[in-house]
Write a structure and sequence with these properties.
The protein has helices spanning about 30-35, 45-65, 85-100, 110-120, 155-160, 175-190, 200-215, 235-245, and strands at about 10-15, 20, 70-75, 105, 125-130, 145-150, 165-170, 195-200, 230-235. It has about 250 residues and is of the alpha/beta class. The protein has a seven-stranded parallel sheet, sandwiched between helices. It has a two-stranded antiparallel sheet with strand order 1-2. The termini are far apart. It comes from Streptomyces wedmorensis.
């Protein structure tokens, strides 16, 4: 949209705080350019626009979670079957965490995440799900009371850490390992105040712990004290006690 027909081009133009004169005068107004639906829409796929979307995800996440009570993030596989011992353990952990005074945060999906949310809901606690946009996304499970969906993994992982006082990690796959090692790295490098990380399921995690000790530490790639950054247990009460002890609740 330009200058109406029959009207001379102005010699001076004010666009917000900017003054333009003579040849630098632009056709139309800022509102016209904002509201004009014509033109190339490729700008919505550019990096500057992505930065705005990323910022909006942080704002939405902070706003939704800022008033949570003390919380524990529970990680685990989306493929855990509802009739499995691991699922039942997730339910018991979610319930026990609420009874210990915590809200429960998960990835909001099915499997182990659903189990922990279910336990938290049954115990009448705060059940939180932080979902992620994936090609095979199934949506937030029905036991989530506060849910936030994210486009970007790194924004979502920030929320897991920022609003939790500790992590309980159930058996899981690559996504669970990603979340686990993100947490271990943040604690090891002191990017965050130390908080407890509990691996639930000694048989499942044994191979990983052995590899860390016998290959990573033995090869000088990590310190012996790094093995103290996490605990391993099969007992729900012990997992909750470890979280309670280290968070001071």
């Amino acid at each position: 949209m330009g200058i109406p027909e029959g009207m001379a081009k102005p010699e001076e133009q004010r666009l917000g705080p900017v003054l333009r004169r003579r040849d630098q005068v632009q056709p139309g107004t800022t509102d016209q350019r904002l509201l004009d639906t014509e033109g190339d829409s490729e700008w919505v796929h550019t990096d500057p626009w992505r930065v705005m979307r990323i910022q909006s995800e942080f704002v939405e996440g902070f706003g939704a979670l800022a008033e949570l009570p003390s919380a524990i993030s529970v990680f685990g596989s989306a493929r855990t079957k509802p009739d499995s011992p691991e699922y039942e353990a997730g339910v018991r952990i979610g319930r026990a965490l609420v009874e210990a005074g915590f809200a429960v945060i998960t990835g909001g999906g099915p499997g182990a995440m659903e189990a922990a949310n279910k336990g938290a809901r049954e115990a009448k606690g705060v059940s939180v799900g932080l979902g992620i946009e994936l090609p095979f996304e199934q949506g937030l499970n029905q036991h989530v009371d506060i849910g936030v969906n994210f486009r970007y993994f790194f924004v979502r992982k920030t929320m897991f850490v920022k609003y939790a006082q500790g992590f309980v990690v159930l058996p899981g796959g690559l996504g669970t390992l990603d979340e686990l090692f993100e947490a271990l790295t943040l604690v090891q490098t002191r990017k965050v105040t130390r908080f407890p990380i509990v691996l639930f399921g000694t048989e499942y995690w044994k191979g990983l712990v052995d590899w860390l000790r016998d290959s990573v530490v033995a090869g000088g790639k990590a310190s012996e004290r790094d093995l103290l950054l996490f605990h391993v247990t099969d007992d729900v009460d012990e997992a909750v006690a470890l979280v309670t002890k280290e968070t001071g609740k």
